[in-house]
Amino acid sequence: MPINDTAGVPSCDGALLTDLYELTMLQAYFERGMNGLAVFELFVRTLPPQRNFLVAAGLEQAIEYLTALRLRDDERDWLHRSGRFTPAFIESLADLHFSGDVLAMSEGTVCFPNEPLLQIAAPLREAQLVESRLLNLIHYQTLVASKAARCVQAAANKPVIDFGLRRAHGAEAALLSARASYLAGFAGTATVPANAWFGIPLFGTMAHSFIQVHDDELDAFEAFARAQANNTLLVDTYDTEAAARKVVALAHRLRIDGIEIRAVRIDSGDLGEHARRVRAILDAGGLRQTQIFASGNLDEYRLEALQRQGTPIDGYGVGTHVGTSADAPYLDCVYKLQEYAGRARRKRSEHKATWPGRKQVYRYVDGSGHLLHDVLTLATDQQDGMALLTPVITAGQRIRPPVPLDQARVYCKTQIEALPAALRAMNGTRPYAVTIAEPLRALTREVDRSTTRATTPDR
Amino acid sequence: MPINDTAGVPSCDGALLTDLYELTMLQAYFERGMNGLAVFELFVRTLPPQRNFLVAAGLEQAIEYLTALRLRDDERDWLHRSGRFTPAFIESLADLHFSGDVLAMSEGTVCFPNEPLLQIAAPLREAQLVESRLLNLIHYQTLVASKAARCVQAAANKPVIDFGLRRAHGAEAALLSARASYLAGFAGTATVPANAWFGIPLFGTMAHSFIQVHDDELDAFEAFARAQANNTLLVDTYDTEAAARKVVALAHRLRIDGIEIRAVRIDSGDLGEHARRVRAILDAGGLRQTQIFASGNLDEYRLEALQRQGTPIDGYGVGTHVGTSADAPYLDCVYKLQEYAGRARRKRSEHKATWPGRKQVYRYVDGSGHLLHDVLTLATDQQDGMALLTPVITAGQRIRPPVPLDQARVYCKTQIEALPAALRAMNGTRPYAVTIAEPLRALTREVDRSTTRATTPDR
Q1: Nearest CA among B302, B229, B299, B290 for reference residue B265
Q2: Which keywords does this chain's UniProt record carry (chains A, B) (predicted)?
Q3: pLDDT, tens digit, 9 for 90 and up, residues A57-80
Q4: Which pTM does this prediction carry?
């Protein structure tokens, strides 16, 4: 890792993509010869007020990260240069790789607070080092998928497209947001490399600048329609209804050449009011097939309002609000030690206490597959519900090929359809029941007793 | 760009890191032979209610992006495979590079709505294509720097450290957030590659897991203190005050071996109350030099409250709230056409109208350098204030080496010190005066007249 001082965008990979304290702790573990089996779980502690459920996402990126984990030569050199670590410790990292087991919730699974999305069982140094990036990957995609699922609900059956690149927090966010929102039911994205990397369908219209570089709006419409068979004309640059009338005139002229105006886009003002007027103009002009697409500061609340009013909008572009999860831009997502060297562990910090031990989540559904409740219990407490955590990495090896994104998307759809209707609504509701099973409660009491013993001598 | 289907994290560069509509428009421009000189400006339309000023950031990454712009072979192949573009258009992109001029505000400059942060004058296809990524880069760093500057103010003279990697929106966000927050006055970051790439000072403590893997808290403290000369012990895993008493006992024992306890960290509960009690315990135990470091869901509002109460905290770790700019996770940041082929242009969409033409921002200060007001005017209207937009790229070439980040950081500090006190406060205030000069108003009227003419024939 060269020191670039200020320029450029850093590469976003490597074993050192972590917090300094992970390395500092690894040095201390090394000096004490501590590298026993550690079990960590990644979960969300509480839901933001505006969420009734979460959609697990980011697992494929997490698996790739773990299975590719190696210390590069330039990273080893940086460790030496930093002056913070002993040569013996740095040399001990030469064979670093992830050799542990991972259980996880499938991407697209609907999930709730305290339920592990990921469970890592690995030698301490590996399990500790990967904390920061695992959280970074799973947190963000889960955040976006959970928000996007709400937009899909709010838009009823109308397609929603991700327009988030420009205001996503960096390029990685834009690409992973395109992925997570597609997983959660978006119809596609405008972000080009999201097609190249993830195979996500691309959609695009035109910008106001296209209208503006032409001296005449009608001329701009015609140029675009002739260049793009699959065209959407942006009608709000100057006067939305006047532009719609131009579209009608143009459409009649272009029909002679076999060119159709597929859609118009409205991006400002009262979208519902403009859509109704534009629809009337298009219909009166014989353009019943021409669709209306809307964008501009949209989120699930505005989508729901537009749908409730029966607005004649055929599709939505949603950018900033999903890519930044604007009304809840983070989740209280953590990665906590549950067991070390065969003993269950628990953090008891105020308002941040965790359930100890290696866990499993069982889901109970009714005869038609609708969710009834979940049970959080110890991995050893086998129950007859559906176990949500299943193996994805064993002894450092991926044990199944990546799940195709379209397949995960279909699974996510069935998951959301299985939710109680109240949880799918935009407003808050009675939380979904996640029961803490008695064996887990018993272990918690036991751990508290032993920790209290271990920490009392000083008092 | 291979289609990976679902796995891995995409690379975050290339000419196709853009929205589909940029490419679609380029195809239409190509077919019409339109590639005149286009002037675009990047600016923020309005401030979020919780912000009184912005801090311009991200310019160095923008310059790197523009000067490196090329179409890779795999990107060209993707364009062919996509079936959306004509072979002639794709071949025309073979020599794509940025050949234009860029004026910009220096990083660290305090700025306000409607003031261009960046002005691009380039052949249309280049100026259009770069819209999405330029916004993506400048928006996010400006967002974070503006939030971080508030935290620095709120913390008075106490150091603030970026802890944001785990909940930043992806790795690029984490790294650019470390950079933007350091630019705005943070003392450093915990994100390791931010040191390697940007030279930002690193800080780190320990995680709760370090305490938990040891059977005894005191034993964990001792192991860490012996392994790390520059140690900070986390005291809130079980019982904060009990842990502080253990630190005192340990410190006396370690002093024999020449080891000091540099600091303790409190991460939960009522930070002010715990800090006062821990300070008393440390002082009574003779550890007046041992500092108290606090973290846990902190933002500028909590920092200000803690400082106002005179809490004995010596430094703060701030993560999620700055990395996601949680109370305002996006800015209304846009990139708008101002001039094409020598004629000024303007968008008149409802609530989204822009001031046309190629502009300059002049800043007026008093005798001691304090900001009085800014004037937004045409580039041709030379004034005697300080011009904030200066050339950074001419004819596609960078005309100065990158500004060292530490130098930009010092400049930013003087910028913020020059702000009226009311603007530096956490709460909203009367907006800073940005006057629209008469020549700009006159041009706007003229553009409206000519656009109305151009668009009226249909009405």
Answers
A1: B290
A2: Glycosyltransferase, Ligase, Transferase
A3: 999 999 999 999 999 999 999 999
A4: 0.96
